[in-house]
Design brief:
Elements lengths: L1 H16 L21 E3 L4 E2 L7 H5 L5 E8 L2 E4 L9 E5 L2 E5 L4 E9 L2 E9 L6 H15 L3 E9 L2 E8 L2 E5 L1
Parallel strand pairs: 1-9
Antiparallel strand pairs: 1-2, 3-4, 3-5, 3-11, 5-6, 6-7, 7-8, 8-9, 9-10, 10-11
């Protein structure tokens, strides 16, 4: 019964944010698909028990994560050619740092279940190209200054995309 309640709760949450994901396209799994679950494996068409996933260990398993794209209020922005510097995140000993395209940021984070909470985030404040600053500001407000939910999609054996999902927003790492 407990498992049924958790699946129902997850479905309600995903239904509430389904409109956020309408901009995703292509053959990869996106969080609005009915078979999506926190730990969906596209290759085997199965879902892992996400309650056993160690998100801290996963985030700290790579030296740095590239921010592939973000989605905000119905628009998906692929960042490769949209910002001055490649947006990256680094996670180590519950500290986070990196760049969102222009400025460097640093701070701490806590993971509680599948929720990511940034804490005491600081940032440099140099001026960059206006479009870069706009993208950076959106990600700062919706990712670095707000708790998000972590979802993982394993697309190919050993290759995962990590989604940090907030209200009207998500960011994709690979």
């Amino acid at each position: 019964m407990k498992r049924v309640f958790k699946i129902g709760e997850f479905c309600m949450v995903m239904s509430a944010v389904a409109g956020v994901f309408m901009g995703c396209a292509g053959n990869s799994i996106t969080p609005n698909e009915p078979k999506f679950s926190q730990c969906y494996n596209q290759e085997t068409n199965t879902a892992k028990n996400c309650e056993t996933m160690n998100f801290k260990e996963l985030l700290e398993s790579k030296e740095e994560w590239k921010i592939h794209s973000y989605h905000f209020k119905g628009n998906t922005i692929t960042l490769e050619k949209q910002v001055e510097n490649s947006p990256i995140l680094r996670f180590h000993n519950q500290e986070i740092n990196g760049t969102l395209g222009c400025n460097q940021f640093f701070g701490g984070y806590l993971i509680e279940g599948n929720h990511f909470n940034p804490i005491n985030i600081g940032m440099t404040r140099k001026m960059c190209e206006p479009k870069t600053m706009e993208h950076e500001d959106t990600m700062v407000r919706n990712f670095l200054n707000t708790p998000t939910k972590i979802l993982v999609v394993e697309e190919v054996k050993g290759m995962s995309k990590i989604f940090f999902i907030g209200k009207d927003f998500y960011i994709v790492l690979n």
